[in-house]
Amino acid sequence: MKYFLHLAYNGLKYHGWQRQEKVSSIQATIEDDLRKMFHPKLTIHGCGRTDAGVHATNYFAHFITEKEITVDLVYKLNRMLPNDIVIKYLLPVTEKANAQLDAISRTYDYHIHLTKNPFLVGKSACYDTLELDLAKMEKATTLFSNYTNFYHFCLQPDLHNHTNCQLSVSNMFMDVKNNRIRFQFKADRFLRGMIRITVGRILDVGRGQVSLAELEQSLQLKQPNRYMSQAYPQGLYLTDVEYPKHIFL
What we know:
This protein is α+β, with helices and mostly antiparallel strands. It has 5 helices and 9 strands, in the order E-H-E-E-H-E-E-E-H-E-E-H-H-E. Strands 1, 2, 3, 4, 5, 6, 7, 8 and 9 form a 9-stranded mixed β-sheet that branches.
């Protein structure tokens, strides 16, 4: 039987989703506890990689087990897992369902606070030393949804079969009262490092280091980024993954 795990995690203490040697990861933490209950070689497959320090409020992974699940797995697994990982639901799916390949879209939010705040440490990226032109940043954000090829906004573009992404949402929200900014991006796929590079370039526009015209030239593939500046990982959240309804039983 195949199942989707619907989960969320605070990634601050982890080296991303994927299991790696000698470092902690979300995948390894969940897998190790599932293996105690089912099979020592059980593997879970996530809907995508996240970098070290990145969070997810809605993440999906699938696994297969020959044993019938007769216990309240969500309750039992949550008792075993650390407090920074939570399982929300266990969802039975069709035999061919795949948490990564069947995703129709993904949504990421990136949070910034502009004044030092001890209650946001690790949960939002602090840029308290910058003089930012917020109007230009908002214009820069809207540019991205006008383009489909993000070759210059990927860490290793040549590793992908192509660098086209259908970006349906590219928004910037400002909370002036609390000195906070939230970016939101939704697309059918994202390239490696794409969100953090995108936010980094928007911040460069806000600093006055990159003009709107230069940003658009990069999006038009007329010139590469002068330097690859990535926004901090702790501001990034995977907030939604959409699937076709027919894969759920």
